[in-house]
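Protein modeling request. Please complete all fields; requests missing the sequence field cannot be processed.
Requester role: graduate student
Desired output: 3D structure, C-alpha cell encoding
Chains: 1
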Amino acid sequence: MQISILGCGWLGFPLGKQLVDENYSLKGSSTSAHKIHDLANAKITPYKLQLFEDGIMGDMDAFLSGSSVLIIDVPPGLRKNPELNFTKKIEKCIPYIENSGIKNIIFISSTSVFQDTEAIQTYTEEDTPNGTSEAGRQLYNCEKLLQENSNFSTTIIRFGGLISNDRHPVTMLSGKINLKNGDAPVNLIRREDCINLISKIIENDEFGTVFNAAYPEHPSKAEYYAKEAKSRNIKAPEYSQNQISRGKIISSVNLEKIGFDFEHGI
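Delivered output (266 residues):
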C-alpha cells in the first residue's frame, strides 16, 4: 500500500519513517528544500509542496497519484499569522484529492476545537466542538469540510498537547511567574503514541470516524509542570493563586473501542 503524508514535520517525518519500516510505500511533502534530502534518505519519495489560500505550489497530482491513504498533517500557523485562512488552504486540496481517487483520509486536528471552561468539562468524541479560538474554529471547519465530502472517507484525530523527549512545554514555561490556569488539567500525548495510533488506524482500516487522543491521566498544570521541572533540574513555573482556572478534560472513548493502548506516559 502507498501512503502520502502532506506535511513531514515534527510528527509527519518520524511517522513516515515508521510506516516505511512497516513496509508501506511512502510519499512525503515538505515546504523546505533542505528537508527533501532527509526524506529521500529515509526512503520517502519527496515532494516540495506549499499550501496557500489561493492555490498550491508544487506537483500535488504526482504527490497523490497511486496512494490509497492521504495523511494531512499541516499546522494552521495562526500563531505566527493570525489573519491566515487555514480552512481555505485545506479547501484548495480537495479537488486534487477527488481527482486522485484516494478514498481514505486522516486529518490531524487538535483538542483546541473544544473550549476551556471554569467548570472543567469532560469532552468525548460525541461532543460537538465549541472552541472559540481562531485555530480551534478553523480546524473544526476543516474537519467538517473533509467529513462531508462523499468522495472519500475521513478519520479525524484530535491530538492533545504533543510532547517528546526533545520537545516539552516545561522548558518554555520554566521560570515564568503569574501564569494562569494552574488548577486546569493537562491533556498531553507523546509523539510515539501518536505514531502508533495512526499506524493502527491504517492497519485496521478505521476510516470515517473521530478520535480524541490524549493520555488518560490529567494532573493539574501546576502539579505536573512542577514535577517535570524538578526532574530536569530547572526552575518550575509559578501559577497565580488569585484566579479561577479554566480548562477541560479530553476523554478518548473511541480509542478504547478499537483497543488502542498508550505505551508511553506523560
